[in-house]
Structure formats: structure tokens, C-alpha cells
Amino acid sequence: MKFEYQNPTRMIFGAGTLLRLGEVAREYGNKAMIVTGGGSVKRNGAFDRAVASLDEAGVSAVECSGVEPNPRLSSVARGGEIARRESCDVVIALGGGSVMDAAKVMAAAVFYEGDLWNMFPHGQAARRLPTRALPIITVPTLAATGSEMNSGAVITDEKTMIKSFVGAKCLYPKAAIVDPELTVSVPPDQTAYGICDLITHITEAYFNGVDGTPVQDRFAEGVILTAMEYGPKAVADGNDLDARAQTQWASVVALNGWVQAGTLSPFPVHMIEHTLSAQHDIAHGAGLSVVNPAWMRFAAKTRPARFAQFARRIFGITKSDDMEAALEGIDRFEAFLRSIGCPTRLSECGIGDELLDRYAEDTLLVAGNAEGQLPGRPMMTKADIVEVLRAAV
Amino acid sequence: MKFEYQNPTRMIFGAGTLLRLGEVAREYGNKAMIVTGGGSVKRNGAFDRAVASLDEAGVSAVECSGVEPNPRLSSVARGGEIARRESCDVVIALGGGSVMDAAKVMAAAVFYEGDLWNMFPHGQAARRLPTRALPIITVPTLAATGSEMNSGAVITDEKTMIKSFVGAKCLYPKAAIVDPELTVSVPPDQTAYGICDLITHITEAYFNGVDGTPVQDRFAEGVILTAMEYGPKAVADGNDLDARAQTQWASVVALNGWVQAGTLSPFPVHMIEHTLSAQHDIAHGAGLSVVNPAWMRFAAKTRPARFAQFARRIFGITKSDDMEAALEGIDRFEAFLRSIGCPTRLSECGIGDELLDRYAEDTLLVAGNAEGQLPGRPMMTKADIVEVLRAAV
């Protein structure tokens, strides 16, 4: 293990903490841009409560609404323009992963010179990371991405339908206000996709990280076991606030770096899925639910012992043969995803097998290494990616 | 769960990272005060390598040596005086928990007005937390306290022989350089005490935290299981660098707040132990090894289910009766401590039963609440503390 880790975000967690938004925002500015999505925060009252809290603290607010799922570069540019024009000095993301990711990049767009897409790796074009951003406060309304307490964002360029990732120090939120009450109105399907998303953040590093990280392994297993215990309760009864809180805390730690510290892991399943949700209107978590089990069966062939550890520690599988244990574990994992209502086949998402080559090519365009392979364990060629996707048809 | 968490410390982990000290220190200052303990870093070459790294980066250094185990207020005052007199602008702690704790308070002492002991709670005197400190860089040479990545310090006032704790935002190190190679020369007994120390940080919150923290429970169990797997290897062969690295990472996460986030836990076993090591020349980890099993047997009577969970998840105990499982788990835990060479009786530390009342009174003086009880689950009276200590005679 050899690594660096730093995460300066201040985490404020608990039911009712939305009421502290104004007090917290006041530490960073006087005029906030509130970034929102499709309007659910208007319907459930969260937006009004946020504005009231800001108002009480003497922070004025303008809104940048309508950030779409799989947020687009043009939306980010629009938000940056609003923040600049309105002289906002703090950006508040009130929404799910798409809203938080978009808001982070908007906060950096205010200072970024040139084409915003240059922040993101894409094909041969050089990448120039953002180095400065307005202070960001995240207020997640969904337990899923972990974006509230990390420095990453995923944006889609609608011209090329390429989805890409940026991670930069200036994108760490100053504060994350994580109020599980905001998630009680999330419908069962979106709740389930969020659970799949958070678990996949964990499995990526568990299966693709470096060897010799036993603490991180145990942390990873702990998050998965907790998500599998409380996630179904949140799906079954959205008003179960304890289940919502435990699921949401699991989603925070699943991608704030605590579990992955030192694993130095690529995220191949995410890279493949991004290609799907860039081209098709599917939820990221649903796409992951399709790709991950298929990828696991592919990868288990090269590292059965690792997948057997997963099977034994998560599902208590007792088979002594590693490969048999591994495959039973993956079956059980896929069955869990189905049990909470996640799709595990492309066809369930309305995606056929016509464009498998294109998905693989796009994946490698964004995330391929110099040898044209997708980093992970094992490294994947275009043919490997197609094989995984074909297994998920 | 309702809590706040923030930890800005930059963690640099891995064998050989001591070589980066100069580069890192240069970000914070030009003249460093290096705080050291009894001289082991001189004998094993770490001090010279640290100075060479600083020198190469253009950072000059003065030394504050001789910080004793269970560091004293007078040493802290001396260090603050050196830093002030020499116009140091960064403080580097090169040593174990005592050195790191002392260095943190020295860095704050430079700016603190009035009696340094006022930083610490002690009896009726009001506490005034430090609000400013020189930049601190920790370079631990022992896997134990977790002080390298948190904002706490424990200091003994030699006039009263009271040991007390301070935690303040300004005491977070700017960076922690955690190089497991620095721990290979730690002798087996000190290695074992460090393992007990780190595990006790975990058990405190596991048994005294609020209900309903399942992710934190799993994290806690993961750290204990890892420490129990790799710790004995580090005791048996100090040159096993992988065992040293895993043990040290376990010690970092055992007290950087990741496991305890949201548990809002008091640390009663530590509070009782501090009284012992303030009055007797024993290692903190050895004292914990004596107090913890005795405390566990006392506390299990009020919460058998919790201790049964520990027994089942850590030791795989299958007894269905909670109390029986709990007691077997505690027996197994005590046996583990003995297996790595830790004492579990006061008499093994040369401490008799003459002063049990005094230890209990001192504990309540530092850590008692308004009702004269020691916070924890259960709350403890003076008689309870004496009962625990008597069971450990």
C-alpha cells in the first residue's frame, strides 16, 4: 500500500439537518445559486425549506433548475453563466448525483477559461483540470452516488454522446448536508438503483484494487452487508427513516474514499455503463445493475479466489472450490439486485445488441490506456467489453 | 444518527514515504521544530533521514528532544518555548503517540495565552480550547494511537498527576507521513501494546456509542479482525513489512474518526486507564489491556446482546444465549491480548490494590459528569470504577 488521501469536506448528517443550510452557507457567501433537477424538490417542499433557511441567514438565492439525469455539458455551461451573471459566491446542489455533479462543474466553470469539455478526458484531446471553483455545498436527495463528499463529477457531452469524469481538488464540497428525510419521497425503483450504484462503487475497488488491503476489504464488505440489510427495507417502505438513514450513510462512505483509500482502483464497470447511459435514457444505477454481474462472471475467471472471498464473506457460501463459490456468490448477488427491482439484462432497459461494438469503442475512447485496453483486473480489450455486454443482452 | 464530521489532514501512507518529509514541510514553512522522544529515532537513523530530507528541501530544523511516555505539561511548555524562541513556522512530530500529542500542544502553546493546563478539562476549572497552532506534520514511528490523523492530545500535569485530553480543530495535523518502515524496529512488547491501544479505540465506540450505527459496527469489526490477523505477525517478526503496514493502517483508521463517525461515544476505558498511567510508569496500551476486559465483563451485564454480537462476529461464537456468548467472546479477547504478550492484570504492571479509590476519584475528576458519573454504557459511579479495577487486580 502506498497512497495519498485527503478529503476536507465537512459532513453534516442527520434527519432535519436541511434546516442548517442557511447557517452553513453563510460561512461561504451572501448569494447562492441553488442547482436543482426535474422539480421533485419543488413538489416535496425541500426547495422552499432550503430557501427559507437561506433567507433566515441573510443569504439570497437564485436558481438554476432543470439539470437532467446524466447531466449535459450545455447545462453545466448554462449554470456557470448564471452564477457569473448573478455574481453568486456559493453554489448549492439540491438534488441527486446528476445535480451534484453538474453543480460542482458549474462552480468551476465560473473561473475556467476555454472549452469546458477540456476538463474531461476524451480521446486524444489533452485534459486541463480546473484549479478553482466557487464554494460548493451539497444537499443530496438520493442515496446513491456519494458525490456529496468527493471531488468527482460525471458529465455527458451531448454533441458526441460521450460521458466522462473529472476529479479535482477544487471540486470537494466545503460542506455536505445529508438529511435522510429528503430521501423518503424517492420512489422504489430509484431507491433500488441508488442501492445498486453504491454497492457497485464498493465492488469496483474490491475487485480491481491492488492486492494487500485487508482493512479496506473489511470496510467494503461492511458497506455491502449494510446496504443489503437496510436497502430492501427502504425499497419496501420509503418512510422507514432508519432504513433511509443507514442506506444513505452507506452511500456516502461508499465513495468518499474511506473504503477505497490505497486501493488505487480503476472503475471498469462504471466506464462501460457510462457508455450506455450516455446513449440511452437509463438510470446510471440500472445500467450498473446490468453490467456488474456480467462483468463479475467475466473477471472471476482470472481471479476466482478473490470472488470466492466475496461469496464467502457476503453470502456465507461454504463451497470449498473457489470457482464454484465465486459463481454462486455472483448468482446470489444478481438475485439480490433482482429482488429489489433492478434490471440485470440490457433488454430490460430497452437496449438491443446492435451497438455493442460502439459501446466498447466509446468506453475505450474515454477510459482506454495507451495500449487500447480498459484498465481493471483483468485489463479488457474491445472484444472483452463486447463479450461482457453480450452476456448481459 | 446525527453528527458532524470533518478531518482535513492529508494522509501520505507507505514504505519509504519519510523521504517526502522535506517536500511536504516546505509547503508550510522554512524552519521546523522536530519533536522527538527518548532517542530511538536517533539510533535507527530515522532522525538523520528526516533532517536530510528537510535539508534537501531547504527547510532548516531545530530539535525538541526527550518527550517522555505519558508526556508532561512541562515538556509541552518547553517545546512551545523553543518554537517561539527559534521562530519555527512548522512543527514535525517524529515519534509515537506521546511525541505526536506533545507536538500538537506545543504548536498551539506558541499562540496560547495563560496557563497551558487551561486547555484541558480538570475538575472545576473552566476549559479554554486553543484556536490557533503552527502547522503540524506527524511522522509516527509506532502503530498505536492514531494521533497522526486526528485533533486530539493527551497530556499529564505532573503537579497533580492528572492526565487529561484536549481536542481542537487547530490541532489537526496538516499532513501525516505514515511510513511503516519506521515501525520495524519497535520491540515486540511495544508492538503488542500498540495493537491493544488501537483495538481499544475501536471497542470504546463499539460498546459505548449510540444505537443504530450498522456501517460503523462493520467498520469496527473489520479493524479488529485485521489487527488480530496482522498484529500477531508484526509481534512475531518485526521485519514483516506487510504486517507492519496493515497494522499501522488499522491504527490510523481506528482513531481518525471514520469508524466512530456518528457514534458520539465517550471513552470510559481510556479515562480509567489514564489515571493509572498518570500515576505509574506503564505504557498506555498495557494499561488498556488490563482495564478493557474487566470493563467489558462489567458492561456486558447491562447489554449482553451487544457483547454477543461482538463475540459472534469477531470470534464466530455460536452460543445462542447472549450472555454466554458475550462472556466467551470476552474470554477469547482477553486470551488474544495475552497471546501477543499484553498484561491483563494490574499486578503484572506492578500496581497493587491500595489506591483503587484514588484512581476512581481521579477518573471522575477529569471525566465525570455533573452527577459525578463516568459517561459510557452504562454510566459508572466511583464504586463501579473500583469494582472494575478490583476485578483486574
Automatic annotation (TrEMBL), chains A, B:
Record-level Gene Ontology MF annotations: alcohol dehydrogenase (NADP+) activity; butanol dehydrogenase (NAD+) activity; metal ion binding; methylglyoxal reductase (NADPH) (acetol producing) activity
Stored SUPFAM superfamilies: Dehydroquinate synthase-like
Residue intervals of the Alcohol dehydrogenase iron-type/glycerol dehydrogenase GldA domain: 8-180
GO CC annotation: cytosol
Location of the Fe-containing alcohol dehydrogenase-like C-terminal domain: 191-393
UniProt-recorded name of the protein: Iron-containing alcohol dehydrogenase
Source taxonomy: Bacteria, Pseudomonadati, Chlorobiota, Chlorobiia, Chlorobiales
Matches recorded under Pfam families: ADH_Fe_C (PF25137), Fe-ADH (PF00465)
Keyword Metal-binding: no
Top-level division of the source organism's lineage: Bacteria
Family listed: Belongs to the iron-containing alcohol dehydrogenase family.
UniProt keyword terms in alphabetical order: Oxidoreductase
Organism encoding this protein: Chlorobaculum thiosulfatiphilum (Chlorobium limicola f.sp. thiosulfatophilum)
